Amino acid sequence: MANNVNLGAARGLYAAILHVTNNYYRFTNVGTTGALRDPASKQIQDATNPFLLQNTSGTTIGYAAGTSNGKLTLTWTPAYAGGYRTSRIGAGGAADSNGVKTIQAAQSLVFNFDKVIEFEVIQPLATADFFLEPLTIEYLDKLENPKYMVEALNDGRYTGTRAQLVRVGNEIMRRLDRDMLIPMDDDLIATVATGVGRNVAYPWDSTNGTLNAPITQIYAFKADGTPDADFWNYIQNSSRDNRYEGKAIFVGGSKMAQYMQLKGIVGLADTGYKLDAQIENLPVHWYYDARIDTILGQDEFLMWDSGAAALQTWLNHSTYGTVRQKRYANMDYGNMNVTVGQYRGIGLDGNLDKDNISLDMDVRILEGRDSADYPTSRVVPSINYGVFMRPVGYFTSDNTDPLYYMTGIFRGKLLTRA
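Below the sequence we write its predicted structure tokens.
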């Protein structure tokens, strides 16, 4: 569903997108985008959602200086060391000052929605005033009302209206992959990589990555192509030593997909453990990203715990955004939501394993005319977003503590033994 759908052209555009999403365009597998919206991260997504936070205390909603970019100021209170003493003495006494520490101030993080991707579609004369036609308005009214929805979808009077909606929606969906999803996913991969911290379970090997952002080398396959237990141990060791709960969120490329798709066809290893159970019980939510091998490096991966990173959008055309009117001059302002399919391969039941990514975004429609004074509409889908990443020092202010440089975002590379 869309949020704050306008009663003008932008409202009609939402309906147009709705009519075309079931035509199954084959979108690029932008796994990082999906992973950053994983349901396991709902808590941090809600904590950075400006719509949910606009009427709450403890979080400041504003704009970056000199820009229209939204920002949230979040606070947290890391652990700190104040010393201790080994005998009981009167509080405030001068005999032993050990264990005395003033309460430490909370820390703050400015979460900026400073990334924008948009494109512009010019609608020619045939569709320029389509959304203002009486039959279209009548159809949209019924489509939004559950009482009339079935009638609206089946009434033969609206056949032409539905066809036109599909035509308009197609123009957006045809460009969505190349002109929004791919560049956005590329940016998200690179952005999350900047948030990588130490993995307490795997110290830096002084070669790959840096001390505070290592790229851990992990064996996924043996020389004969069977799964290697090293990968299983990496996931388990990371969970235990970095002390996070639940399944990690894992984004990988072709080698990760190759590992996961062996589920159901491998059996006992020569050492006696069950390879299929190893894969089946791997404690991760995994996402295949067709771009990660290109952006990060061949066979590299990103992994994070469910509270470490999240993608959040900022709707400029909203009750908390910069534009709160539905129409100004010859411009319509609204929002829309698009759902794109993601594919991981054929599951054990013979059906396609399919995930969906749902994204809220702004849309604006400018009424204009061409060089011959025929009316046109310029449609601009626009997504304004930011990526929350847990900062260094979130868990403790003591930089000698192993958790100080642990952000919960990890980077590694999958290998095959020689």
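The chain has one domain: 9-77+106-416.
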